[in-house]
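Blinded run. Sample ID left blank on purpose so nobody reads anything into the name before looking at the predicted structure. Input follows.
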Amino acid sequence: MLTAGLKDIAARVVALHRQDEGKGLALTTAPVMALGIFERVGSNWLSDSLRGEMPQHNEPFRQQLSRKHPMSPSDRVPLDLTDGAWLGELERHHLACALSDLYGHPRHLVKETNLFFSTDTVLTLLPYSPVLVLTRAPVGIASSFARSRLWKRWGYDERYAQVAVTAHSARWRREFEPLLPQDDPEEPIALGRLIAVNALLLARALAGRDRTIVSYEQHVKDPTATLARIAAHLDVALPASPRPRPTTPEAADATFATNGHKNELIATLDRHTAELVSEHANATLIHAAQTLDPQVIATAAEWLAGDDLYELCEPVTRPRPATRPVPVPQKVPLPAYCPVTRVSWRNTLVTNGEMADLLTMLHAAGMPNTQSGTNLLLCPMPHERGGRLRFDPKQRRWLVSPGYEAHPAYWVTWVGAAAMAAWSGARLPTRAEALDAAVGAPPAHNCDYAMGDTSSVIEPGRGAGQVHHLVGNLQIWCSDGPVLSEAEPEQRFLFGAAWNTPGTGEAIGAMRSRYLLGSSRGVGVRLVRDPDTTQATGLGAWELAHRINGWIDDLGNPACSLGELDRRLVTALTGAAASS
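Blinded prediction complete.
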């Protein structure tokens, strides 16, 4: 059972989208949930395959909630849904806006993996969402982890400890304490246990709920038939055949790229490691049979089947550097504004170095980025998860991953983008201005996974007096958004192409939007100026902090709708009307 507060938030969002449970409506705007039994189950392949037909949300609960948020799957303190969990006003507002952002037409796709003990909560908050369960045999998952050394790079020793702590908490210990002993197991054993536990929690939460199974092994064997089955189930058009997308030698990290296509089931593991993973995944299911429903065990076992389909291939020992190569720092030209159609565009995207300076100054002014577990300006992902900015509490300042100072800042919320604009004596472009500027612009230099990540804000072959990456490298936040009902949370348009999105004219101009506190690894900040915005109009960090903190203080007003509260924030940051 959810607490009364969380139930109220879920019901409020459903009502916003006219999905009254009592009316038995055909619910066509609730998002589709793609839930993996673990990571590396083909979720990127699925989301990229359907990107043209369905707006995408990549792990909004697991990645974008702070680890201290009571609903975060990474929080060591379990969310007790029986006795209640306190949510502050900022947390409530953010959660309602984030949930509302997932609804829409065409239907959105929400990808989540490794929810573990937050699975019940997420599914109950989205009661009308159809579910795709992404499965893969444990040996295949272990092979992917071993090939890219993900256990160490993604901090899974700590992840195992965090999940085990929750399994030993009062709410879960009867059923799950025996499955995750705190015995500091070696990697293959711990991985096998975690895969099985997440599969069990997912099977338990989905009992009695309609779902469609998407097997990794089946989609490798016949991707066309697998996509056709998914498209038919979701009633969306079958995506066009993907174009070849070669990764260039400039690629810094292809971990998140999906331009490689497999047609064989080969596990690059030695036999001993493969046996350990399989043995402990199966042992976990056997232990679980003592406390969990037999149907849950049978379902999880079905999802974890298929180890025998893989051909084992002994890994070849290759010398690897202890760390990935650091990009060579580049000198960035001073910010300059170049006339493009009706306004002047800044020559470069906002860099990580600039965003770190702003975040540090706002923190000193009394406005930390993360409050009540909610990220306001930027989602501080770990470096190995694609984050490039982190706060150092000892130095009380934000730091940039070495070598990425001249790369464009991403994971920035619209609030962070608007704050950067106000601080710089500039503004964000409107969608119409961005469309005008893109006419005749050079093709995107970095898009469609060509480099596996962002490149420098400096575009080869362009000078300081030209606009670099007018399209490409990152999509950008706009100052305006779609016209919504007065009660709905405000949204803002995104525009352009990013390193991880297609660079076609159709994709660049496609209409898409996010809520004000949303963020992603493909969206950054571009500034523009006109006669009303100059360096002299810039706001200091203290003034910005005062305005945002004042908005947070006002969130407890029960008479205000989500939309009205958001419009107050927009006005505080821009002094302009909320929607154009």
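Unblinding after everyone has recorded impressions. The first helix runs from residue 4 to 16.
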